[in-house]
């Protein structure tokens, strides 16, 4: 399955489970670890776990074997490594603390600013 198709499966699963603030970041030019990061918020620890479980269920149904998952025990955050796509699901306060959008999108903006100098 192509990376873009996998992102669409992940987003559809998150939307079905009422994930909040779904963001996709194309990181192909920034890292060799993965192609895309999908970040979403859940309203509670139970919601975060449900989001992750549903994503795993939907991608497995498409024949994708997840490489691993982390952090789902507490329900504050979870990371799903699907190879070409890494999914982060977090409660809003945790998401704000880690601020992955700024980290990954800001790196590109910072490089562009330094290139102009």
Automatic annotation (TrEMBL):
GO terms for cellular component: cytoplasm. Keywords: Cytoplasm, Repressor, Translation regulation. GO terms for biological process: cytosolic ribosome assembly; negative regulation of ribosome biogenesis; negative regulation of translation. It is found in: Cytoplasm. Pfam families: RsfS. InterPro entries: Iojap/RsfS/C7orf30 (IPR004394), NT_sf (IPR043519). GO terms for molecular function: ribosomal large subunit binding. Interacts with ribosomal protein uL14 (rplN). Belongs to the Iojap/RsfS family. Functions as a ribosomal silencing factor. Interacts with ribosomal protein uL14 (rplN), blocking formation of intersubunit bridge B8. Prevents association of the 30S and 50S ribosomal subunits and the formation of functional ribosomes, thus repressing translation. This is Ribosomal silencing factor RsfS. The lineage of its organism: Bacteria, Pseudomonadati, Pseudomonadota, Gammaproteobacteria, Pseudomonadales. The gene is rsfS.
